[in-house]
Automatic annotation (TrEMBL):
<comment type="similarity">
    <text>Belongs to the fibulin family.</text>
</comment>
<keyword id="KW-0732">Signal</keyword>
<feature type="signal peptide">
    <location>
        <begin position="1"/>
        <end position="16"/>
    </location>
</feature>
<feature type="disulfide bond">
    <location>
        <begin position="227"/>
        <end position="237"/>
    </location>
</feature>
<dbReference type="InterPro" id="IPR001881">
    <property type="entry name" value="EGF-like_Ca-bd_dom"/>
</dbReference>
<dbReference type="InterPro" id="IPR052235">
    <property type="entry name" value="Nephronectin_domain"/>
</dbReference>
<protein>
    <recommendedName>
        <fullName>EGF-like domain-containing protein</fullName>
    </recommendedName>
</protein>
<dbReference type="InterPro" id="IPR026823">
    <property type="entry name" value="cEGF"/>
</dbReference>
<dbReference type="Pfam" id="PF22914">
    <property type="entry name" value="Fibulin_C"/>
</dbReference>
<feature type="compositionally biased region" description="Low complexity">
    <location>
        <begin position="82"/>
        <end position="91"/>
    </location>
</feature>
<feature type="domain" description="EGF-like">
    <location>
        <begin position="263"/>
        <end position="302"/>
    </location>
</feature>
<dbReference type="InterPro" id="IPR018097">
    <property type="entry name" value="EGF_Ca-bd_CS"/>
</dbReference>
<dbReference type="InterPro" id="IPR000742">
    <property type="entry name" value="EGF"/>
</dbReference>
<keyword id="KW-0325">Glycoprotein</keyword>
<keyword id="KW-1015">Disulfide bond</keyword>
<dbReference type="GO" id="GO:0030855">
    <property type="term" value="P:epithelial cell differentiation"/>
</dbReference>
<keyword id="KW-0106">Calcium</keyword>
Amino acid sequence: MLGLCVILAVLARTVAQDAEEPVSYTCTDGYEYDPVRQVCKDIDECAIVADACKGGMKCVNHFGGYLCLPQNAQIFVSSGDEPSQPAEPSAPANPPQSPGQGQSEVQTHVQPGRGPGRRVSSSRILRCTPGFILDEQNYCRDIDECTRGRHTCSADQICYNTRGSFLCQCQPGYQKNGDQCVDRDECLLSHYCMHRCVNTPGSYYCECNSGYRLASNNHSCVDVNECQVSQPCEHQCHNLIGSFICQCNRGFELAPDSVSCIDIDECAYSPYMCQYACINTPGEYSCTCPDGYQLQGTRMCQDINECETSHECTEEEMCWNYYGGYRCYPRNPCEDPYVRTSENRCVCQPTTACRGGPQSIVYKYMSIHSDRTVPADIFQIQATNIYPNTHNTFRIRAGNEKGEFFLRRSSNVSAMLVLTKSLEGPLELIVDLEMITHHTVANYRTSSLLRLTIIVGPYAF
Ligand SMILES: *[C@@H]1O[C@H](CO)[C@@H](O)[C@H](O)[C@H]1NC(C)=O
Ligand SMILES: *[C@@H]1O[C@H](CO)[C@@H](O)[C@H](O)[C@H]1NC(C)=O
C-alpha cells in the first residue's frame, strides 16, 4: 500500500500540476501508457503479435487495434491534416466509463490546444482526429466516408469504410496499377483451363480445341463424339479422342474432303477385270458376256451350246455348235452320184461314175477362236482303212488360196492340218483335204476327200 502511494504521488507531481486529486491512469484495450510522454500510446500489434493476420493478409496498425487487409489494399487517410499522427491520442483516458458497451471511440478524445496528460473533461469543447466526428455523447465516432461521399475512390472502385479512414479496392478481376484499376489478365496468372484461356475485362473463360467441348465445370475439355452428334461421314464414322475418322463401304474410297465416299471404278483397274465387258456400278462391278456366251464365275465367258439348249434346226438338219453360235447343216450333204453311207460320209456308187473325182467325201465341222496364236495344229486327217501294199499322200486340194494352212504328214496314214496365219472371226472357211492312196502292187490310185468347214468365232474365247 505504501509503495503504491509513492508511485501515484510521483505520477501526480510530474504529470498534472492542476490535478485536484491523485489520479490513476489506465489505458483502454490496444493502448499502453507511455510514462515518458505521459500519454496512452497505441500499441503496434503488427510489430508485436506474431501472425497477427492469416492467409497472407497485410497487417495494418490502427488506433486501438489493427486491420488485416489484402496485400494490394491502400489506405487513404481522410482530410489528411496530420496523416502521420492520427494514431496517437494525446490524452490518457479515465477508466473506461462503460467498457461493456464497447464504445472504444473514447480513445480518440483530444483536448484542444493543450499539452498532453490532461484529463478528459466532458465539459470542454472537444475535437476528434481526422476521420472521426464527435457525437452528442462526446464520443468520437468513425465517419463512413464511403456512404457520405467523402472518399476519393474512382467510379470503377469499391469503397470500404475503415476506422478513421476508407479503402479503395478494385472490382473483382481488376487490379491496381498506380491509382487506376486495370483488368487482371487471369490467363497470364494461374487459371485452370484445360486447353485455352481467354481473358475478358474483369474475368476470363476457357475454350477447348476443336473436337472437344467445355465440360460443365467450365474448365475441363471433354471429347465430342462427332459420330453421334452430327453424323459427318457419308458411310462409316469412327470417333477418336478429339477427332473422328470416316471409312467407306467396300467398293468406295474416301474423297479428298475425308467425309464423302466416291465409287471406285473397278473396271478402270485393269482391262483384265472381265473377259469380255466390265460394267461399273456403285460399290461394285460386274462382267457381261456377248450373245452366245454365258458368265462362268465372275469374269469368264463360256460358250453356250445352243444345240443342247435351244436351236431351230429341223429334223433333216444337224445342229453344229461353234464359239458364239450354232449352224444347221443338212443331215445328208451327199449329192449325186454320191450316196450317204454313214453320218457325214458320202461314197460314189458305183465307183466308176466318179472316175477322176474322189471315191468318198467326208464332211467335218470344227470351230476355232478368233485370233488364235499360230502356228497351231488344228485338225488331223487319218486313213480309216489301212491296206497292205499301199502308200498314202496328203494334200490340201482347195480352200487355201490365201495360204492360211499347211498340211504336215505325220505318219504313213495321217497328216496334221496346221494353221499358219491368225484368223479374225467371225469367218467361215471350207478346206478340202485329200488323201491319195497308191496301191503299189496293182498300181492304181484312189482318192478320198475330207471337206472341213472351219468356223472362226467372233471372239478369242
Ligand atoms: C459455367 O458457365 C455457365 C455460363 O457461363 C454458368 O451458367 C455455369 O454456372 C458455369 N458452371 C460452373 C460450374 O461454373
Ligand atoms: C510306211 O511306208 C514305208 C514304205 O512305203 C514303210 O517302209 C514303213 O514301214 C511304213 N511305216 C509305217 C509306220 O507303216
